[in-house]
Design goal:
Length: 119
């Protein structure tokens, strides 16, 4: 849904500019940049979900690698985040990275991953 908003950004901006009642909801450039960032993050999570859902049987070793890849992607996005990004977006990305770190740590401590890797 977000990609449609980005595709039709100019039309949305024009319509809102011409409609007096919608002017308080006009999106600024920073708002559009935030939408683009959220869309990138959602793509990464969708990709991870799709990868973990494509097999008939869940595989612990692939889930571990997917968590690691997703965590690295979020870390890179967080590092590349401009200072002008809204604080709520920065906070959300940091929270997502922390939550993945918690899961990654729990999986990393588990002996089951070592066993699954050796099979």
């Amino acid at each position: 849904m977000l990609h449609w908003a980005l595709d039709f950004r100019q039309a949305i901006d024009d319509f809102v500019a011409k409609t007096q009642d919608l002017r308080p909801y006009e999106l600024l450039d920073a708002d559009w940049a935030g939408i683009e960032l959220v869309m990138q993050w959602l793509k990464a999570f969708r990709s991870a979900t799709t990868q973990m859902s494509t097999t008939k049987r869940p595989m612990l070793s692939s889930a571990h690698a997917i968590f690691c890849g997703l965590q690295e992607s979020l870390r890179d996005d967080l590092a590349a985040l401009p200072d002008s990004a809204p604080r709520k977006l920065q906070s959300a990305l940091t929270s997502a990275h922390r939550k993945l770190s918690d899961y990654y740590f729990k999986v990393d401590k588990s002996p089951f991953y070592v066993w699954a890797s050796s099979m």
